[in-house]
Amino acid sequence: MESTLKPQYHRLTRPREGVLLLELNRSPVNAFHDEMWTELRAIVERISIDPDIRCVVLSSAFDKYFTAGLDLNAQSTLNGSQDLDPARKALVLHQHLLDFQAAISSLASCQQPVIVALHGICFGLAIDLASACDVRLCSSDSVFSIAEVNVGLAADIGTLQRLPKIVGNDSAARELALSGRRFDAQIARDIGFVSRVVQGKRTDVLEAALELAKEIATKSPVAVQSTKHLMNHARDHTIQEGLEYTAAWNMSMLQSVDTSIAMKATLAKKTAIYPPLNGSSRGAKL
């Protein structure tokens, strides 16, 4: 079925075959309020079941800002709980945080790989978003900050859980999270937060991300989605648990027609063409 989503704070385009470009698009600085992250979750969950999307690129529609983080001036749904007693208010806040976390985590649980093209100002929630993506590229003009401590709170939407595992350097992660100081693209690369720094600005890193997405989109969708799924599992389990789970997963996935298609194409020195995951061009689409 065709999507009924009509994004207000995001822009969706198909710049490459099998690639969806998802751009944050709330003027002037992509500051997030409740409606924006709720919409993001709805979009990503629809992407995840679209058989024609093989890879996703997350970026910004604005040249100078990826996102400045939370919109501190926005009217939050939490304001309606001001008359409640502390226990009831806490329960409302707890559910609000869980919903917000789920919205950002939808990027990690999305079946397709998500590449984020970071540039310009990347503060606060930008780190949460990027940490939930599979591949992080940034332009040389990027400026980062785990800014939550600067406004009197601990980051609560995923950065403190994902960043230390991504960079593999607990001291560096704590230094940046506890100080809230800004750091540049080179530091982001040095600590392993991003895999590549692209010289230039928004258009340059976006082009690099789209080319990578285009390459990934040519691969077997069974192999690509299985790889993401198994790497997510391996991150959160022991090596032995990961090996056993992979064996159980691949006892069915190895029977995919994609394997024979890939082998025949390689031998014939041709480009492999893989069928959609649902076996047709029909399905939930954006």
TrEMBL record:
<keyword id="KW-0443">Lipid metabolism</keyword>
<dbReference type="GO" id="GO:0006635">
    <property type="term" value="P:fatty acid beta-oxidation"/>
</dbReference>
<dbReference type="GO" id="GO:0005739">
    <property type="term" value="C:mitochondrion"/>
</dbReference>
<dbReference type="InterPro" id="IPR014748">
    <property type="entry name" value="Enoyl-CoA_hydra_C"/>
</dbReference>
<dbReference type="Pfam" id="PF00378">
    <property type="entry name" value="ECH_1"/>
</dbReference>
<keyword id="KW-0276">Fatty acid metabolism</keyword>
<keyword id="KW-0413">Isomerase</keyword>
<dbReference type="InterPro" id="IPR029045">
    <property type="entry name" value="ClpP/crotonase-like_dom_sf"/>
</dbReference>
<protein>
    <submittedName>
        <fullName>ClpP/crotonase-like domain-containing protein</fullName>
    </submittedName>
</protein>
<dbReference type="InterPro" id="IPR045002">
    <property type="entry name" value="Ech1-like"/>
</dbReference>
<dbReference type="GO" id="GO:0051750">
    <property type="term" value="F:delta(3,5)-delta(2,4)-dienoyl-CoA isomerase activity"/>
</dbReference>
<comment type="similarity">
    <text>Belongs to the enoyl-CoA hydratase/isomerase family.</text>
</comment>
<comment type="pathway">
    <text>Lipid metabolism; fatty acid beta-oxidation.</text>
</comment>
<dbReference type="InterPro" id="IPR001753">
    <property type="entry name" value="Enoyl-CoA_hydra/iso"/>
</dbReference>
